[in-house]
Design brief:
The complex is a heterodimer. Helix content of chain A is about 40%, strand content about 30%. In chain A, strand 8 and strand 9 form a beta hairpin. In chain A, about 45% of the residues are buried. The mean pLDDT of chain A is about 85. Chain B is α+β, with helices and mostly antiparallel strands. Chain B is about 60% helix and about 15% strand. Chain B has 14 helices and 13 strands. In chain B, the strands form 3 sheets. In chain B, strands 6, 7, 8, 9, 10 and 11 form a 6-stranded antiparallel β-sheet that branches. Chain B has a 5-stranded antiparallel β-sheet with strand order 4-3-2-1-5, with no helix packed on it. Chain B has a two-stranded antiparallel ribbon with strand order 12-13. In chain B, a hairpin with a 4-residue loop joins strand 6 and strand 7. In chain B, helix 13 packs antiparallel against helix 14. The longest helix of chain B is centred in the N-terminal third of the chain and has 46 residues. In chain B, about 40% of the residues are buried. The model of chain B has no long low-confidence stretch (mean pLDDT about 85). The chains are: A alpha+beta, B alpha+beta. Chains A and B meet through helix 1, helix 3, helix 4, helix 5 and helix 6 of A and helix 1, helix 6, helix 7, helix 8 and helix 9 of B.
Chain lengths: ~725, ~550
Amino acid sequence: MLMTWIIRIGGLSVIVAVFGIFLFILSQIFPLFQRATVTAEMETAVVVDAAKVKALGVDEWSKMPFLYEGGNELRFIDLAHDEKIITEKLNLPEGANPSALNYYAASHRLVFGTKSGQVGWIQISYANQGLGDQVRVLGSAKVSDMYPIGLPDAEIEKVAYGDSGSSKLFAAVQNQNGAHKVLAFPIEQKKSLMGAGKITKGDETDLTAQISGKPEHLLVPQMGDGLLIADDSGTVHYFFLNDGKLEKRQEFKPFGDTKSLVITSMNFVFGDVSIIFTNATGESRMFSLMIPEGGDKRIYVQTKSFPALTHGVDFFCASQRNKSFLVGGGDFASLRHATTENVRWEQKLPFQAAAATVDGKFKHILFLGTDGKLRLYNLNDPHPEAGWKAFFGKVSYEGANKPKYEWQSTGSDESEPKLSLVPLIFGTLKGTLWAMIFSVPVALLAAVYAAQFLHPDVKRIVKPAMEIMASLPSVVLGFLAALWLAPILETRVVSFFLVCIGVPASAMLAGIIWARLPVRSRSRLKQGREWLVFLPLMFIVAIVMWQLGPLLESLVCVVTDPVTGKQTADFRLWWPQVTGSGFDQRNSLVVGFMMGFAVIPVLFTIAEDAISNVPSSIIAASHALGASRWQTVRRVVLPVASAGIFSALMIGLGRAVGETMIVVMATGNTPIMEWNLFNGMRTLAANIAVELPEAPPGSTHYRTLFLGAMMLFTLTFILNTAAEVLRTRLREKFKMS
Amino acid sequence: MAPLFKAKSAPPRGESFVWLTAMGLAVGVTMVAGLLLLIFTHGISVFWPSRVTEFELKDGQGRIAGEITRTQMKADGATELQLHVGNKDAYGLGYRFVAQSAIISESMPEDIMVAERIEYGNAIFHPVLLVMKQGGTLVATAPEFENKLRLLVEEAKQRHKSIEKIEKSEIGKINGKMSALDLDLRILDRDEKLDTAARETKKQSIKESRAALQKQYETLAAQAKELSAQLKDNTLHYRLSSGEERTQAIGDIVKVYYPNRLSFTDRLGLFFKNIAAFLSQDPREANTEGGIFPAIFGTFVMTLMMSVLVTPFGVIAAIYLREYARQGFIVRAVRISVNNLAGVPSIVFGVFGLGFFVYFVGSEIDKHFFSNSLPTPTFGTGGIFWASLTLALLTLPVIIVATEEALVAVPRGIREAALAAGASKWQMIQRVVLPSAMPGILTGVVLAMARGAGEVAPLMLVGVVKLAPSLPLDTLAPFVHLDRKFMHLGFHIFDLGFQSPDSDAAKPMVFATALLLIVLVVLMNLTAILLRNHLRKKYAIGTF
């Protein structure tokens, strides 16, 4: 009794464990499809005068926000320690009175312009002590050098600054007696042997004449290599810093096709390549820098549009971790993702927000209500760049001039991960297709012959040999493909195809001649020995064809060098010239051929079983009716065994789909989408093998690879189940007959 | 089916298609045989000591000696020889192509010598002089030169062994103790219950024993250093075919022979010695030289561990499915699903193994049992146990299917006889069904082992490495190191064939490893097939 229970429990738990694999992988990919969650964490008791606050910022742990009202002091609020207010004296020079402010959260730089025509910035610094939850954050502020701009004693209305280290650019709008002048100057730092050299102000440029209306918005990317000015007519002027000079490169109207032309907000998303524009009706569009088709310069082109913001735009904050941005107005806030055009989270707030910011870790949102209270919200969005669209849709990535499917999971911090699984699925199908094209004819023909014509004694050896082949380690096949086959096939493509045509042709020809021989000479050869007779013939044909290859190549595949006029006969050059697609040494042909070794034994074994199982009574009946042996096979055996053969095909397909090592080793693993036989691909399985060891657990990349594994799992499971069901049906059918 | 009567009728229809199917089989068989033959010849020839040919080249390129490894036709019809010229320290590359047309003359000088070295691969040269520390030199033409050289090489080999013994086992033990003490120190630092004085005294005693160990370590290290210095005592002066004169410390030579003087039996002897060295030595020179013993051992331990893990579970699940579960739609569905798991790509199991075993279970274990060595993971990273578990899951369907088949094949008659004799269901299964199903279950186990031994893709994710510093089983407690990373034959092939910087130098090694792996897998499969046939015969009689 005890054993019965042990076995029951053991058996059941093994089965549960097996299905647990599926559930576990599912649980790993589930978070990819979740939206962001935002929950209120705290509300300060401290009340500030929200109307006076001109800048709001926070450290990356959201422990010590700062508020600036434009005076000579800056206030930090220590949220972790009883909301203590720490006032930091700024020591602004006498008479410096900031009139324009612009806070750059990524560099913690509060750029300002004064009423007296000077620009500069306040550097906010955060230092942390301790680890983990015990982090104690300290804030400090320091004023930079200040530079005069335009006329002295004329008020600066708007200011922007970009600083990439090597290139620094200041831009400002100055009210010169009612005229709104747009001025810009670079800051030059002479490099010397003694370290950082002297900082000098570069030549000031007055851009006012080059724009038509009143300047409303200024943007300088962090690279400090350009400047965007939006005027009150809704036109954006893009200037590019070339050799120390600002030259106008582009003029465009983001909302030129709508009724509401005027731009109400204009901000960069992380990376400073894309800009989100919003107009008065709340319409929201994204423009990205790119070289358009046929163009030669990088200009801004619309790539995306977002749901309208009917509440207006009072605050905008780009994440410093990814391409998300928080935007909103009044009591409405929305978190969006630039790459996927997704709204990650959107909510009506229980208060009116005057300002908002996202911390550097993308973990909190800090709102400043119009009632003067600071409200901290917890933001949980570990995978903002994921989603159906990112995985399976065409996406226009920054810098690309049209939407496309692309897989590029790693890159610099500021580049967006390109997570389209489509090229990988395509690669998987491509590899599978070429493998099947090569292996199906060989395996099925061999199976028909082995089951119907081959002598049983020989079959007793051939069949187990094939079964052993099925278990050959694929890493061996992969290394043979890469180190042995690829270099051979590289120079002998034409020969290879000639052999592929020549051998079957010679077999058919041999059959025709054989059939015309007198019966007496035919009956000398025992049935089921044809293949032995054919073997030497095959070798002769193959060798002849192999040698003929270069000859044919020299006749057909002639390429003329356009410069020297020299003619060379080389398939590797000829193919790209004729088809326009490339030729790689490690290509699909190599993979297809080698994968054939892995697939043929599987296909052969199952198909042979299916054909052998056709009851001999119906075969005998067919012969009795006068059908020849081929007629019997073609009209009787194959139709009856078709379901079994089909199931063999599906199992072979399943094996090819999941094959990893051959593909990893014998293709270039480039995720391209071309059916071209002579270049490589990247399959789902190979992609996992290559990238998963490096993917940090829990990251979007990691989970996306799990998604790939899930697709492989489901696909092969469906294929195998269908095959199994078909086979069971077939078996039952024969049972009855 | 021969025709029943002779008729002068038209030739049988579709004969050409019959021949086409014959071609299918011919191609299939040729491919299989060709592949095995290719690997066999390439793999075996690695060990065969081939002759060294010396060439005189045109255009002042001088002379060069090497083993001819390949002759190939270039696109323009010219032939080209690939030579293994060795002497990587002198030439930079171990392989070189020589155009047939550039050769003036070729010869096989008797005095040319091949030395296998610990570093820089083989050297191929004309020996000149042996300089010994105890004074005295010996010219290469002297009759006793060869024996003396061999003697010195043998001596150096013994010295290497004693150095290895000191470094690996004795210093290894001390290192183990020292890191245990370091861990104790860290635990003391974290222990808040202790007061400062007690902590300090404990710390002091630990530090003292650590200092004693350090002293032991230093003496041993000095010993090893002295032995290493002795390796440089004797030197061999030689001349390359190019004319360059070089010297080589005898201590760095593994083996010397005159390739052009060997008789066939000598060659055969050397051939088997080479195979033995390949199987028993550690790899050298970024795995491209030496042996593959750690990879064989890793594969063996991993496969064994996997079988131990998978067999009981697989058998129990199969017994449940076949003997206990009510046969209905659900059991049928479960059976189909289990069967189909065998067709799920192995990489998916690797993904599961990494995500579940390594990152989930492993890091939990670390948190609870190895928190002192965190953040360095103990089980939270790939290791042999996780690899075995992953492969156990992968091969579970193989065992379940094979066991079920074996259970079905047990004739109804003997089951009923057992029940009729008063046995309970479990007694019947235990005493009657399982023994007669045993060959079938064993077949499954062997098949599973063959599959497990050949898999690489999942292992890449859960703990296989190109070079493991230590074996998963050794003489240091606790003897079985479940958390250690390990080497594997299949991964060795992948790494050498795909990621080696010098693929020409790696090729012989890859082919030899591939041959070994294939031989192992084929042998296991053959065993399984023989077992199965044996089983069939047994029941063919048993059903009477």
